[in-house]
Inverse folding.
């Protein structure tokens, strides 16, 4: 698990650096941040859609 986290972090960083640097232009960090926001939007949306509800007694109810 730890190795997969390290590889995932390295690949994610490489993708953001690749998105931020364009040939014959300056580094644009705004593009990198917009790319990361776009990539993280879909998992956040699916997490909200699949959210499990918990009632007062502590039981987890799937919606």
């Amino acid at each position: 698990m730890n190795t997969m986290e390290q590889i995932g972090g390295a690949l994610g960083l490489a993708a953001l650096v690749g998105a931020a640097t364009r040939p014959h232009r300056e580094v644009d960090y705004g593009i990198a941040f917009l790319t990361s926001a776009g990539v993280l939007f879909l998992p956040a949306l699916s997490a909200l859609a699949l959210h499990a509800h918990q009632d007062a007694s502590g039981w987890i109810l799937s919606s």
